[in-house]
Amino acid sequence: MNRNYNFAYLDESSKREIRRAILNAIAIPGFQVPFGSRELPIGRGWGTGGIQITLSIILPDDTLKVIDQGSDDSVNAVSIKRFISECTGVGMTTDSETASVIQSRHRIPEIPLRSDQILVLQVPEPEPLKLVEGSEVEARRMHAEKDYNLMWLRLFEDLVQFDEIVAAAGYPVMVNGRYLTNPSPIPRYDVPKLNMSETLCLFGAGREKKIYAIPPYTRVEALSFEDVPFAVESFGDHYCCKCGAKGVFLDESYNEKTGEKYYQCSDTGYCNGRRAAGNRADIVCK
Question: Which domains does the chain have, with CATH numbers?
Answer without folding.
Answer: 12-126+173-222 (3.40.50.11310), 234-286 (no CATH)
